[in-house]
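Thread: Newbie trying to understand structure tokens

Hi all, I'm a second-year student working on a class project, and my supervisor (Dr. K.) asked me to get a predicted structure for one chain before our next meeting. I've only ever worked with sequences, so writing a 3D structure as a token string is new to me. If someone could post the tokens and maybe explain what I'm looking at, I'd be very grateful. Here's the chain:
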Amino acid sequence: MGFEAEEFTENSPSLIEDSSGSRWTPLFRKSCEFDSRIFFEVMMNFIRNPNINSNWLFRADILIEKNPDQLISTDPPITRSAILSFKDMHLDKVLVRKLIPRNTLRDQPLDQTCLIYHGKGPDNIERSMVVYKPHISSPVDIPFYHPKIQGMAFLHEWSTESKEGSVSIHYHFFDNEDNSPKLARTGLNLLGMLHKHGEGTKAGYVKRVHHDTIIPQVSVQNTYARLKEKYARQLIQTWAEVTDPSKHVFEDLSIAAFLIELWAQMYQDSPFPGFVDIGCGNGLLVYILHEEGYLGWGFDARKRKSWENYSRILNEESEPKETLRQHVLLPSIIGYDPNIANASVENGETVSGVENSNIIHDGLFPKGTFIISNHADELTPWTPILATLSDCPFIMIPCCSHSLTGARFRAPAPKAQNKSPSAYSSLVEWVTKIATDCGWELETEMLRIPSTRNTGLLGRKRACSTSSVDIQEIIAKYGGTEGYADNVMKLLYNSARGH
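---
Reply by user tm_fold:
Sure, no problem. This is what the structure looks like when written as tokens:
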């Protein structure tokens, strides 16, 4: 069942009195059990993170945050003119934010003043209020993502005696504009989010997912917006795979934006060392990074249709190199027969239709090469091991669970859990332990990508030297590698047969 609230009847008296005489129409009211402290905590979070309430928005940039007496003559006139006075309400804080839309080609950013009030009502009722005032004079100038109204108010009323209260939402309409069903639904949804977050906070909800712990949100989103505008249409129109282009294009543009900003931070005082994308799939991420000037390459056990479009030839030291290559990875640390590419792998059949020259890669890369492991499946648990062997930083974005043998398996659940963890959280915890045992100080970033598999594990700092790590001992601890060569060669075999 959806959120339900008391709907005010038409021409209901206003609950808030604007000193200018403007009418604020009450729409909906809902009883609540959280006090004014929680109300303000939730509303401040909404002010700073409007994307919680709207999928059309990236974020809000806070331009001004002051007490009313701190406003000065040099502040923009439109900011000072947005200050409103309400009967029996005291203005505590003024914020001006710029709402940043996801699609800047369709909608422009919007400046909006946010006003924080408190006061007293009849019967000693505590009243708290937050008002949104867009810097717009006409409804035709309101962008798609904002209701076509002059202002919006959230009112919280609380009885200190009964410990009961209510929240309500109010609109200041433009002249000759009525409350359309769409505007009413928007108001109900916004009030529902306030009520949900308020009651959740009171119940002790603690946010488990924290974004933007490594790179600031603004930097990544600005770069993503630029990449999206530059590449998205062309990439979708020329998509060569049978998969949904929108998901892959926007996801890889998001990952590319994060990497570009990460590398700007990591290599601001040194040359970029190059990258390798292990298990690169369709090669799109490699292509985007190359177009942005970051040299590197990617490989996969199966060649994709897209490679013909994305592959670029690098003229480096007069030695042309393909940026997308077909390889199966057999790490040098486990040992293997170099002629295995010609060996029988299934039912006595040999791999055919594949050029076996240099098809095997030993997993060793030049020191410092940045390793990308994006939904690399069989190579995911190998990523921190390969990074240790070659002394390379890495990012690992786990997806499907495989053991060090290359076989599918469910990663063991972490110990001391109060409830049964998901298969994905178990996988993330498992590969994190491998990386920690390899001597990496992992950093975690919940990536802003259109995927539920969005945990980014970054290894760029070490707790101990690579020479002090016993890789064979770690491999044994996590199940060994028996059957790995056969499993990865089956990938090559299936590729040759068109599977």
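A couple of things are worth pointing out once you decode it. The CA atoms of residues 208 and 295 lie 36 Å apart. The first strand starts at residue 6 and ends at 7. Feel free to ask follow-ups in this thread.
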